[in-house]
Design goal:
heterodimer; A: about 80 residues; mainly alpha; 3 helices; B: about 270 residues; 3-stranded antiparallel beta sheet; 3 strands
């Protein structure tokens, strides 16, 4: 029963991606990117690529979110467009 | 302009979707990759390298060059962040806090430097007292995160994980200290220079182990030639070589993560930040 989990996670990924580029608050974008990475990590794990899932969880959902938040902290929180 | 960009994005997306149509199905045993390459690795990797985790065997041994230059790329990322953002100029204004009374002093003359120690501490412009609960919880968590990171590096031969993941986890434990306390606490404990040296040493460990195989009579990255130097069963020498390079990768990645964080969050001044 891999198929439905795949599809549910994929739907969440697309939602996160669209939300990340459409919200005005950049801090929210950073968190949405973290959620996106975590969903990607789940998808890799479902597909059996555990090493890739581990990397995605630690780099994508962990450190890069911190970098985004740090960059937002030092620049502006709202986008111009 | 925005409309044009939208059209370009849609076209690129459509082309990419069209391109994925040529991919073989997920897990298809008749796809070109599974026909030749995968079988080779699955059948011979354990026998040749004595490493149960095939991904590590492929990354650190069969594709050792790839991983070496990936480490070099990470090192360059840290270097670029440092060179772009680091700001060595003296700050005109300083803020000090008198610890016993909590009075905050604003020093406008840059020449005057108060002795920082038991009496005064140097604080940021937007300083807020760190929360006791957050500080305590993070202080309890940090050692466990670090031990887990070392486990991930050391156990990369047998289970998912390895130098990159372990290094990132170790680096994020140091970033957690900087977030929960203060950036200055971290930079005072471990100097910026130390992180720079560690980043270079990590890459050097990898290249050093790889180059050490040459005077021992093998090719670059041919770990099996290190057998006379290492104790234990000579069959496991490739696994030990991989562990060595993974440790190098871990050290480099840890240092680079912290360098990127402290430079981004303080605009390169390393004085104030999250």
């Amino acid at each position: 029963m891999h198929w439905p989990i795949d599809m549910i996670v994929l739907t969440f990924i697309i939602f996160c991606a669209i939300a990340a580029i459409s919200v005005k608050d950049l801090l929210a974008t950073a968190i949405l990117f973290g959620a996106y990475s975590f969903m990607m990590c789940l998808l890799w794990a479902v597909m059996g690529a555990v090493d890739v899932a581990f990397t995605e969880a630690s780099v994508g959902a962990g450190v890069s979110t911190v970098f985004f938040v740090a960059a937002v902290f030092r620049t502006s929180r709202r986008t111009k467009d | 302009m925005k409309f044009l960009g939208f059209i370009v994005v849609c076209l690129t997306g459509a082309l990419l979707l069209y391109g994925t149509g040529d991919f073989s199905n997920w897990g298809d045993p008749n796809s070109p990759a599974s026909l030749h390459l995968s079988n080779e690795y699955i059948e011979r990797a354990l026998e040749e390298t004595q490493v149960p985790n095939l991904v590590t065997a492929v990354l650190a041994d069969y594709r050792g060059f790839d991983t070496m230059f990936e480490t070099a790329v990470i090192f360059c990322a840290g270097l670029a962040c440092f060179l772009l953002l680091r700001d060595f100029r003296e700050k005109k204004q300083r803020f000090y806090r008198h610890i016993p009374t909590g009075v905050i002093l604003h020093v406008k003359n840059s020449k005057k430097v108060l002795p920082v120690g038991r009496e005064f501490e140097h604080i940021d412009k937007d300083w807020v007292p760190s929360d006791l609960i957050i500080k305590t919880v993070c202080r309890i968590l940090v050692p466990f995160i670090q031990i887990y990171a070392m486990y991930v590096v050391a156990h990369g031969d047998f289970s998912p994980g390895g130098g990159f993941q372990g290094g990132v986890i170790f680096g994020s434990s140091l970033i957690l200290i900087a977030i929960s306390y203060d950036l200055k606490i971290l930079v005072r404990r471990i100097k910026e220079k130390v992180f720079g040296i560690f980043a270079a040493v990590g890459v050097l460990i990898y290249v050093g182990i790889a180059a050490l195989c040459m005077p021992m009579g093998g090719n670059f990255l041919d770990y099996s030639k290190l057998a006379p130097l290492l104790p234990g069963d000579p069959h496991h020498v490739r696994a030990l070589g991989m562990l060595g390079v993974e440790i190098g990768v871990g050290i480099a990645v840890t240092a680079v993560m912290v360098i990127i964080y402290i430079n981004i969050v303080s605009e390169g001044r390393l004085e104030e930040g999250l």
